[in-house]
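Subject: design request, 150 residues
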């Protein structure tokens, strides 16, 4: 059974543009399974913790300001190679470098408004899931309903 999980987050620009359903659809169509979904207005402290590795980058203050601009939609997904494949579904950090067919390649033109976040390693995914879902997430077996005898 696949156990790799990732944290995918639709950023404020993606939420504002009504792209949440489109992004969910792409992960579902690919064959992945959703474990959690929440809309949240993140605090500055939560965002600084999420992006702690980027604290020294010159774009860090602008990144935090952008991420504070509105609610985000955070999700946990599970499935085979979800971290790597999830990043491929997103495209490159800069939408201009992203191939058509990817989320950023289809919907973005600005690195500072790049629609969606995806964890970059399984370890970071688990760190981010604990950070954004401190009460844990459900675990469910996709075959359960289909196979239920009643
Ligand atoms: P993310 O964490 O959001 O999935 O993005 P990423 O791994 O593709 O890129 P990362 O280097 O971790 O950067 C995090 C976010 O910071 C913004 N950024 N702005 N102005 C710039 O040069 C610049 N570079 C990065 C983007 O929103 C990027 O997604």
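Subject: RE: design request

Done. Sequence follows.
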């Amino acid at each position: 059974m696949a156990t790799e999980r990732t944290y995918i987050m639709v950023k404020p620009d993606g939420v504002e543009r009504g792209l949440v359903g489109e992004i969910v659809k792409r992960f579902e169509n690919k064959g992945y399974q959703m474990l959690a979904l929440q809309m949240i207005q993140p605090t500055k402290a939560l965002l600084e913790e999420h992006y702690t590795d980027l604290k020294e980058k010159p774009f860090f203050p602008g990144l935090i300001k952008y991420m504070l601009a509105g609610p985000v939609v955070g999700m946990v997904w599970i499935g085979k190679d979800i971290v790597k494949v999830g990043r491929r579904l997103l495209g490159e950090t800069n939408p201009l470098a992203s191939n058509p067919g990817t989320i950023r390649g289809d919907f973005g033109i600005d690195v500072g408004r790049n629609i969606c976040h995806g964890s970059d390693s399984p370890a970071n995914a688990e760190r981010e899931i604990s950070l954004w879902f401190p009460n844990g997430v459900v675990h469910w077996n996709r075959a359960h309903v289909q196979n239920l005898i009643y």
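The mean pLDDT is 96.
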